[in-house]
Design a protein that fits this description.
The chain is an alpha/beta fold. Helix content is 41%, strand content 20%. Bound molecules: 3-isopropylmalic acid and magnesium ion.
């Protein structure tokens, strides 16, 4: 029996519904395995702006720093569009990633055989297999470099900066993961144009010498975008700087049929780690009970793994697999036995 302290950042839009469904699954895990999960609900994003005036209150950061795991729904929505850039809900997300030192963002894209018809790709391409792990650098690059807009509104800039140490630590994560998979790292850059990409490539090659068993190759980001839809089976681990990883992980997710299925974990120097679906807050369907909670449930499974509860994580994944195999589908998943968000969470909990 273990006692774990879990911070829940439900967030905005569909965030509360999908985290509620994941909590129902976590309660089933508690019961089956005899654990005690203390859930600590905190504010981040638009909901925090409404309550505290800022997207990331200090008390949220403090709670996350001492937690065993942090489960996040999603943040943002049109309600906060008028906020100044520095006070947008997204700043809360970027801020918590940075405050917790979460430099490694892992975004697996796998295809469930039952859902191939929901993928926009042809069956013969999918039959070659889709099992890609996007390893995205999360607290550096153009997202965090110096930026400014001129007073007259006529120009603005953002800066892509990477230090060798920042590249080294994320490259190591990618190679370590590749060792547990098909032993292939494809590093994404734009080294034909950007100096920061040339540095990225040099350091990735340096780290590669420490992993002689892993095959490494480099690909320009434009080509990566094309190859991903042409033949995703060629990729195992896709190692990306922050912004390229943001873009390619959305593309990879769509190959699997629905962005509603994919979880992600963000790991780094803080023991907790942050676990979230890769999709956004979908304000257009918020409150309608049609959102797909599976990505958040699978993010909770990744969190269990990070807390050392591996059997528990496998039980959650198996339950999701069973519910999909039994034909239950939220609207984004295509044809099948139609269920809403809440019911999907309950079905997964029952299967656990
Ligand atoms: C993601 C999102 C975020 C990002 C946004 C909401 C700031 O798109 O997690 O992929 O760009 O990192
Ligand atoms: Mg994104």
């Amino acid at each position: 029996m273990s006692n774990k302290n879990i911070v829940i950042l439900a967030g905005d839009g569909i965030g509360p519904e999908i985290t509620d469904a994941a909590v129902v699954a976590l309660k089933a895990v508690e019961k089956k395995f005899g654990h005690k999960f203390d859930l600590d609900y905190r504010y981040m994003g638009g909901s925090a702006i409404d309550k505290f005036g800022v997207p990331l209150p200090d008390e949220t950061v403090t709670a996350c720093k001492t937690a065993d795991g942090v489960l996040l729904g999603a943040v943002g929505g049109p309600k906060w569009d008028a906020q100044p850039a520095e006070n947008r809900p997204e700043k809360g997300l970027l801020g918590i990633r940075s405050a917790l030192g979460l430099y490694a963002n892992l975004r697996p894209a796998v295809i469930y055989p039952e859902l191939t018809s929901a993928s926009p790709l042809k069956k013969e391409i999918l039959d070659r297999g889709v099992d890609v792990m996007v390893v995205r650098e999360l607290i550096g690059g153009i997202y965090f470099g110096p930026r400014a807009a001129s007073d007259d509104g006529d120009s603005a800039y953002d800066t892509e900066i990477y230090s060798t140490e920042e590249v080294r630590r994320i490259a190591k994560v990618a190679f370590d993961i590749a060792m547990t998979r098909r032993k292939k790292v494809t590093s994404v850059d734009k080294a034909n144009v950007l100096l920061s990409s040339r540095l990225w490539r040099r350091i990735v090659n340096e780290i590669a010498t420490e992993y002689p068993e892993v095959e490494v190759n480099h690909i320009y980001v434009d080509n990566a975008a094309m190859q991903l839809v042409k033949d995703p089976s060629q990729f195992d681990v896709l190692l990306c700087p922050n912004m390229f990883g943001d873009i390619l992980s959305d593309e990879a997710s769509q190959i699997t049929g629905s962005i509603g299925l994919l979880p992600s974990s963000s790991l780094g120097t803080c023991k907790a780690g942050l676990f979230e679906p890769i999709h956004g807050s979908a304000p257009d369907i918020a409150g309608l009970d049609v959102a797909n909670p599976i990505a958040t449930v699978l993010a909770a499974a990744m969190m269990l793994d990070n807390m050392g509860l591996n059997d528990e994580a496998r039980a959650v994944e198996a339950a999701v697999g069973k519910v999909i195999a039994d034909g239950w589908r939220t609207p984004d998943m295509g044809e099948g036995k139609r269920v809403g968000c809440k019911k999907m969470g309950e079905l997964i909990a029952d299967a656990i």
